[in-house]
Write a structure and sequence with these properties.
five-stranded antiparallel beta sheet; 205 residues; alpha+beta; 28% strand; three-stranded mixed beta sheet
Amino acid sequence: MRKIIIVVFILVFSVGFVSKNTVNTEETKKTKGSIAVYLEESGNKTSNSDVALKLIKAGETADGKYVLTGELKTCGIDLNELETADKMQKAAESIFREASTKKISGIIKHTDSSGYVKFENLENGIYLLAADDINKYDNISPALIAVPVFDEESSETNGMKYDIVVYPKHWPVTAAKTGDVYNQKGMLPQSRLCAICGISNKESY
């Protein structure tokens, strides 16, 4: 149970809750991180392999705060004020639309036969994870992920966790045709925190 509590905490509260002293240390800045993504098996038994996922660096630290990068600055979103899961999800959707409109490139990788892919050697910052091509899988909700995040029980540098694990929220492509209100909104029948922040409520990985 502890594993899922940690991951939920990481994704919901990582933006805006990393201390100024922590994000600015030189040791922290030099340490690279990673984001491992697991696409869960679809309820419709669609394939989770060969799904193209895009990772875009959306934010970086400046004077102890997070700021949007490059062309994304026009979003007008303050990454330090995302104090609820709802605000975080809306911010991810807005940043995703802005990135799509401006055709901002990112790192694109494909999942393996088990629906797994890992982005490595990542600089500190806030990353937008979104689908580039769902192939035969479900729709995938965009999500914001911080690297690193604070975990007081972490054995990594200064209590910071650099290797993040994500289970993206997904819903059937045919949802709009079935009239399923939850799926039309990208909401799965699971806890509000897990659903909004874009991860699964699995207890073990």
